[in-house]
Structure formats: C-alpha cells, structure tokens
Amino acid sequence: MGEDSTQKDYLSVRMDQLRGTGKAISFDLYLKLGVDHFVPVFSKTTGIDYHRLQHYRSKGIFELYIRAADQAAFEQYVSSPLWEQLEQPGLSPERQAALLLSLTEQAVVEAFSELPITEETVRNLAQTLHAYVQTMLKSPTILALMLKLVSRGGASFYHAAAVSVFSLFLGRASGVVEEAELEMLAMGGFLHDIGLVHLPKEIVQKAGALDPAERRMIETHPQVGLEQIKGFEEVPEGVRQIIYQHHERPDGSGYPNGLTSRAISPFIPLVRVADGFTSLVTRQPWRPAYSVGEALRILKEEGGQYDPGWLKLLQKMVWEKG
Fold first, then answer.
1. In angstroms, rounded to a whole number, what is the distance separating the alpha carbons of residues 183 and 180?
2. Would you say 132 and 168 are in contact if contact means Cβ atoms under 8 Å apart?
3. Which own/partner pairs from 252-255 qualify as long-range (CB within 8 Å, at least 24 positions apart)?
4. Which domains does the chain have, with CATH numbers?
5. How many CB atoms lie within 10 A of CB 315?
6. pLDDT per position as a tens digit, 195-228
7. 3-state class of 272 per DSSP?
8. What's the rounded Cα separation, in Å, for the pair 120 and 36?
C-alpha cells in the first residue's frame, strides 16, 4: 500500500550509494510513484533484495527515498560498507564468509543482469575478487566456508560465484599458480559464462536435449561473452582467454574453435574442472544436486574431458574440507 505524505517528509537517495552495503537495514526505502505518493519497497523487516534493486536499475530507476527522520540512520549505513567491515579485527571466519557472500551476490547480480556489462560493474567485481584473494591468503578456513555456501545455491548466478571460488581454491592449493595470477583466475571463473546472459533463457535453461539450431546458438556464448568485456582495461588477457576457451578440449573436440591442448590457455583445464564440478553439485531446474562423491565419479567417467591432475587435487581438497 502506498503512503501519501508530502515531499518534505522524504529525501531522495542515489541507488549507487547502496553498492557494497549489507542487506540488513534499520530504515525503510521507498519508490516514488507520483506527487506525494511513496511506496515502501525495502523495509527493516525484509532488508534489501539485490535482484530487485537491479531490476529497478534495468527499468531506468536510479533513485529511492527515505523518510527525512531516517537520514542519520541511512548515512551511518552507507558509511560502513562491507569492504570496511571485512577489515575489522576479530571477525569470526563465519562472519567474514557471510560478508564475502553478500559482496559476491551483489557483484553477480550486476554482472549477470540483462543490462550490458559496464566498467563500473567490472571494477566492482575486481574489488570483490581482490577481497576474496586477500582474505583467503590470510585464512584458508574462510575460503572453505565460502565453498560450502556458494555450492548450496540453486540459482544460476550462484554458479558463477562457485566456479570463481573453486578455481581460486584449486589454484591456491596447487602451489603452481602465482599469487598475482589468483585474482585473474578468480575473475575468469566468475565471468566464464557471461555470454549466456544474452541468449534466450528458454534455451539456456532448457531441461531436455537441445536441437541442432539451439546447440549452435549455445556454442556462440564464448564469443558473445568476449564481446561483452571488449575494451575494459580492468579485464586481463588471461580472463579473456578463459571466457573464450572454457569449452575447448585437449583433443580438439570442443568449441568455438576446436583448439587442441597446445593452443589452449594453461588455466582452462583448471577452470573446466571447477565448472563441471560446480554444475553437478548445484541444483538445476531439471534435477537435484549431486553429492560430492557422485559429482567426482561422473567427472572421472567423462574420460579425457577433464584433466586428471586437477580432478585428483579437487578430490583431495573437497574431502579434506567437506
């Protein structure tokens, strides 16, 4: 129900002020429908829904309103972003993992919306992944918690977060990925399927087998994804290779170019293992999630599709951390 009050009872706030903030709020946020007509859209009870926030942006809405009496509470809220909260001493691993998950959800919602990806979105994503890497280097326990949290999500956008975290986890555990490469690896895992956002949902989410025309369309998503991040200096070359090559296979049977192992980025086998495992342990519209053991068995039975060295490391890590 709308609230009829005078304009002076409300203050406008920019939606971008909510970037990097938590879901819990101590005030209500309103949408202005007309002169002196305001409708509550986020409340102290429900908190902020990042998906709905992005939906408003996609409709060209970039301002919300607060009651004038809540100005101090709002200013305090936006002055303590999740980035800063992560740096507070004495936070439990569970709290740090929860903060990272909130940042992740915001970043994924923005990156995987129907809007064209923007430089601001890429910068926000880079900041989130930097927090991942720095937090993990301080405490691997937190990354293990993140693995459990993101792999339990059923929505498709959680897949991006999970592939990012599992790629980061594998890279760190291998001992062969340099620290400077970890953020690149995490961003590549995050954005590998960005091209799917711009394909018809009824095809991307189809439960049954794809017909030849649908298959050809799906196989365009690496090129579509590459086009989405074209010209963004924040996206390293290694990330572009992951986006474009993550469906290539060592025997040349992959797509879009049928590359063989000598021409494929050395990070692709790692990301493919993270991608395949995450897909299996995440709920899908047409099936429940597989258990860790079932997922590992399926990947091993796929023959040469997945690198046995990365599979062996994944098995070791998920059993130790599970």
1. 7
2. yes
3. 255/219, 255/222
4. 3-78 (no CATH), 88-321 (1.10.3210.10)
5. 16
6. 888 888 888 878 788 899 999 999 999 999 999 8
7. helix
8. 33
Write down the residue that tokens 């098995």 correspond to: 315
304 near 310, Cβ under 8 Å?
no
On the question of pLDDT at 322 being above 70, the answer is no
Q: Say if residue 304's pLDDT is above 50.
A: yes
Containing 64, the helix (H) or strand (E) segment is strand 63-67
Q: 27-41, 110-124, 242-256, 285-299: which has the minimum mean pLDDT?
A: 110-124
Amino acid at 164: S
How many Cα atoms within 13 Å fall on the side-chain side of residue 67?
15
CA distance 47 to 80: 16
Joined together, the tokens standing for residue 102 give 């909130």
Question: Chain centroid to CA 192: how far?
Answer: 10
Burial of 189 (0-12, 13-18, 19+ CB in 10 A): buried
How high is the pLDDT of residue 151? 54
- In the chain, count H helices and then E strands: 15, 5
Residue 138 has pLDDT above 90, yes or no: no
The answer to whether the Cα torsion of 150, 154, 156, 159 is positive or negative is positive
Q: Give the pair of three-digit tokens for residue 291.
A: 């258990």
Least confident of 81-85, 243-247, 258-262, 293-297: 81-85
Range among 23-27, 164-168, 190-194, 227-231 rated most confident: 23-27
